[in-house]
Design goal:
The longest helix has 19 residues, at 159-177. The chain is globular. Helix content is 43%, strand content 16%. The protein has two domains: 13-177, Jelly Rolls (Sandwich), CATH 2.60.120.280; 188-305, Homeodomain-like (Arc Repressor Mutant, subunit A). By secondary structure, the protein is of the alpha+beta class. Strand 6 and strand 7 form a beta hairpin.
């Protein structure tokens, strides 16, 4: 008989991001990211996208994939999707980080459409390790990261082509680095999360369509009961609750950035009626979609205890 461990497993947080339409990058930058890091209730978290970060100023402590280290001005981090990490400002002081979130598979498949074997090899290297480095060690990467962020501060001619080219180069440089260091040991909790990542990714691609627990379980090669148990254990929600969270998060983006009718928004995020959409929205957000739309974009997200502040960077604090 197998005995279950009595040790309480850590609670982690999924911070789910969507890429802006027709963009390979979500850029988070500007004065909104001058803040105290690490004061969230559950600071250990992971993302559905790769996170590329640069510390502009400040200092503190980070944990990435079970390894802890100090950071200060100039530090850059490359953190794959599904890699547990946290950032904590030293002594509760203000720091400024800026971030790029991207989907490497999407970028590389677009860059090398005729060579799927090459793409698969690069993705394997990108997904097997995280990295962090201070200046000057990270100089070449830091230059590309800064140029990418600058493209999003002020879009210029050939913006999309420049972004795609620089992002492809950045990913290839990071993949090349994996030859130089052995694979880092993975935390058991990260391995557990990987069991349900196919379901999370499936929801991310198909949230606008009807989805059953049976479909999600098949994606992970798990029984429905096992899948439900893993969702509850590591995300503190059921598969259905997670699907609802993603749908409502997407509806917030549509309400903020389009003039779609409520019926259009409901249909685009997977609800067949306005009443069903309204009921789920109000349950999660504490207000109706109409009230949310009327209140504008000053949105402190309640989904999964996180906030996606903007699709692109702010130029002034009034843009926040």
């Amino acid at each position: 008989m197998e005995l279950r461990s009595s040790r309480k497993k850590p609670t982690v947080q999924l911070r789910y991001y969507e890429l802006p339409e027709r963009e390979p990058v979500l850029a988070l930058m500007g004065p909104e990211w001058v803040r105290v890091y690490g004061n969230e209730p559950e600071n250990l978290h992971f993302h559905n996208l790769m996170e590329i970060g640069v510390c502009r100023w400040g200092e503190g402590e980070m944990e990435i994939d079970g390894q802890s280290f100090s950071y200060k001005d100039g530090m850059i981090t490359i953190i794959p999707a599904n890699c547990l990490h946290s950032t904590v400002s030293r002594d509760g002081g203000l720091n400024q980080w800026e971030y790029l979130f991207t989907n490497p598979e999407q970028v590389l498949t677009h860059a090398f459409p005729e060579d799927p074997v090459f793409v698969e090899g690069v993705l394997h290297r990108l997904q097997q390790r995280s990295c962090w480095m201070p200046l000057p060690e990270g100089g070449p990467l830091r230059g590309l990261i800064d140029q990418l962020l600058d493209e999003y501060r002020s879009e210029r001619p050939y913006h999309h082509q420049v972004v795609e080219g620089m992002l492809t180069a950045l990913l290839l440089l990071v993949a090349r680095m994996s030859e130089q260091e052995p694979r880092q040991q993975e935390l058991p909790v990260a391995a557990e999360l990987r069991q349900i990542m196919p379901a999370l990714e499936y929801i991310g691609r198909n949230y606008m369509n009807p989805i059953t627990v049976q479909e999600l379980a098949a994606q992970c090669s798990l029984s429905e009961a096992h899948l439900r148990r893993k969702f509850k254990e590591y995300l503190n929600m059921s598969p259905g609750e997670y699907l609802t969270a993603v749908r409502i998060r997407q509806s917030c983006e549509l309400l903020n950035t389009t003039r779609c009718s409520m019926m259009e928004v409901a249909l685009r995020v997977g609800y067949q009626s306005v009443s069903s959409f309204d009921r789920n929205f109000q349950r999660l957000m504490g207000m109706t979609p109409y009230q949310y739309k009327k209140n504008g974009k000053n949105y402190q997200g309640k989904l999964l205890d996180y906030k996606i502040a903007a699709k692109k960077g702010w130029k002034t604090r009034e843009d926040v």
